[in-house]
Amino acid sequence: MEKHHSPQLREMGIVVLMVLCLSTTMPTSISEQQEGGGAEELVSSQPRKWQDRVIEVKGGPESVIWIVQLSDLHFSVHHPERALDFKKIVGPVLKMINPSLVLITGDLTDGKSKDLLTMKQNEDEWIEYQNVMEDVARRSGLDKSIFYDLRGNHDNFGVPFIGGSFDFFSNYSINGQFGRKGNVNSVTLETGDRKHVFVGLDSTMATGLRGPTNLFGHPTDQLLTQIDSQLSQWDSQKGKSITKISFGHFPLSFSAFSESQKSLRDVFLKHSVSAYLCGHLHTRFGKNLKRHHQSNDNFLSSNKFFQLNIHQEPSENTKNCLFRAPPPKEFWEWEMGDWRKSRAMRIVAVDRGHVSYLDIDFKSGTKKTIVLPTFPLDSRFMLTSSLHQMYGCQHMVPFSFETIRCLVFSVSPITSVVSRIYDTRPGSPLMIMETTMTKFVRDISRGDIYAAAWNYKAFEDPSPERFWLQIEVIDVMGRSTLSELRPFSVNGLSAKISWTWKEFFVMGCQWDALYYPIFWFAVYSMLSILLIPKFVLVFSKKQYSYKTFISEKGIINCIAWVLQDLCRVHVVWFGFLGYLIYLLSCPWLIGQVFTDDGNRGYMTRMGWLVKTFNSREKHNYIGSPDIMVVVLPHFFFVVIPSILIAGALAAERSIYKEHFLSLSGKKEDNDSSQENKRSGKYENHRHRRSKFDFVERKIRKVLLAVCLVIYWKHFMNCKVLMKAYEMNPLLHFPVYSLAIPLLVVYTVYKTGSIQ
User: Secretion signal: which residues (predicted)?
Assistant: First the structure.
């Protein structure tokens, strides 16, 4: 591989480019030969159904389509800059990019009070959203009908039912204005040789609770059936290849199972969608919020609960080179950043079936030029095992491997596009190839794609991170724009990227599956802490105390002593046990869960029991596993620490009592001593006891400080719930808010003396 290529190689590249140009400019339908560019909806004799729409993409380059994704706008009356920046930046950028679709994947409005504690719908925010989107569509020059927006959980805060007076999404969203009423909407972008199916899904709660217990997507069996139907709508037709992409608001880690324990993941794997585009998590948890899913039929697999790394290892490594062999069941999940703080936008391109994306940050302002490499793909976040299988079966390698390609969007004419490949094996990157890329020219053009011929076989390597690609674009003003330097692997090997602990926490854990195991682990832990020492104390001759610990030191003896001392404070022990039984069997809260002052709901460990305004029917246990944001922190940061602190305070009293008695000097032989000697000893003892109280009870002071930390956390949790659900702690959740503080205060009182 040399930087300067031979004339024969250049001639071969020119021939390849000519063939590619012919393949992308050959007309395939009457509508493509008409004047104009962009996308045109197919004319049909049937009434238009927005849930199943077909758009014929007109103009070159025919081999590539691209769309734009935006997410988590959070337009707020308290933060007008979000809408102002959106209006100023997005319209001109969309005009420059000229996408075939614009997808807005949820959380269009914020629905929060200024202190962020009350979460319900605000019509002013929806009016602002409608006005801003009208302006953006006008300034971009795009047909407004190619915009698709979805509900997020913020758009559903406090909405008792769809179609009601507080369902502002149906009135002010773009989908609502075009009558896209269903929870599933699909649109197919059709080119001469390929169909690109985009299926959008709304999995928000049918009965929208206020936050914070409105955090998860809740797909139903009916929704999954509709998604399955839309993804398979072209499967029976032959002739054109199909690329399938789905989009929604919630990542799969924050999507619940359906009534029959099916999931969105099952449907996406069944159809081997190329990607699932989503939002919801923003960027505060990390930038690698991507996840590769692959089918695993192993019943004992842990993937139902969590996935440790971005790339999931396949259950078996088989290669099927048969003609028309089914592709491996897999797909990528790509969560994107948010507009709220990051001012993020994503461009997704499909180049002959190869799906790539570019995330753009507009915090520093608009971009004059944007470069999106479409082939070769980034080996970290875009490759699939199907590409590796395809390359392993050499007769299946497509013609698309013959060139390096990229999309270029710019406000100014482009004078030069150069691709460079670096080899990192020597240690530092060494440029081993530099070649000028040529623009595909066509009379009717939607955008600019550049390509350069290369000998892709020269870059085969067992390491997916050895070779790196970067593209430089120079416009007529002399401005240089570089694409991100990224690794690639022509033989389809994926570079292994690990999550940070925060990224794993939000992307790698399937929280719906984990909620009840974690819940019952906490419950059984508390029952064990309370009941086992009590059983040993009552029914066993073995008694544990500070004296037995001193004589037989060991961690088991220490734990047993501490917990048995808690059992000896009977009021506290029975209080904790009764409180735990209450949490398992009774309502925790009685709160206002909808936007207006309607009926209150009851929150239990299994969810909310609420009654909607249009029906007397109660909805049992909605908002599960969403309630985990209340239940699990209360268990792990309040109840369990309080039980342990109470035991520690009781044990500390035992230590103090033993030291006190050892220093008291109350011996029978002292009873016969003289009165003046006793008086002097008593004064000496008072001095020593005072000194001991001040110095030796430091452990108690530390424990009291820990108590203050725990109850500050509990107080803040109660404050959030009071504001969120408009509750009075004495009327609407007295046991939840007061039981633990009272129990520990009583423990502090009882352990303050040795009596």
Answer: 1-27
- Cα 343 to Cα 85, 336, 360, 527: the distances in Å are 8, 11, 8, 48
Task: Name the nearest CA neighbour of 439 among 403, 469, 467.
Answer: 403
By the 8 A CB rule, do 630 and 212 touch? yes
DSSP reduced 3-state for 609: strand
- Are 582 and 599 in contact by the 8 Å Cβ rule? The answer is no
Dist. CA 640–CA 528, nearest whole Å: 11
pLDDT in tens, 476-515: 999 999 999 999 999 889 998 899 999 999 999 999 999 9
Give the orientation angle of helix 640-664 with respect to helix 511-539, to 10 degrees.
30
Phi, psi of 514 (to 5 degrees): -90, -20
The answer to whether the CB of 216 falls within 8 A of the CB of 251 is no
What's the CA angle centered on 445, arms 444 and 446, to 5 degrees? Answer: 135
Query: Which segments of 358-423 does DSSP mark as H helices, in order?
Result: 385-392
Dihedral sign, Cα of residue 522, residue 523, residue 526, residue 531: negative
pLDDT for 302-324, tens place per residue? Answer: 778 999 999 876 555 556 666 56
Contact predicate 354/377, CB 8 Å = yes
Q: 103: burial class by Cβ within 10 Å (0-12, 13-18, 19+)?
A: buried
Give residues with Cβ within 8 angstroms of 328, minimum separation 6.
272, 294, 295, 314, 384, 385, 386, 389
pTM recorded for the entire structure: 0.89
Mean pLDDT of the chain: 86
Q: Is the dihedral of CA 478, 483, 489, 491 positive or negative?
A: negative
User: Which residue, among 175, 184, 115, 126, has the nearest Cα to 149 in the 3D structure?
Assistant: 175
Helices (H) and strands (E) in the chain, counts: 18, 26
Query: Which of 454, 412, 413 minimizes the C-alpha distance to 432?
Result: 454
Q: Report the alpha-carbon distance of residue 346 to residue 454 in Å, rounded.
A: 28
> What is the C-alpha end-to-end distance of the chain, expressed in Å?
88
DSSP string, 274-294: SEEEE-SS-STT-S--EEEEE
In Å, how far from its chain's centre is CA 697? 47
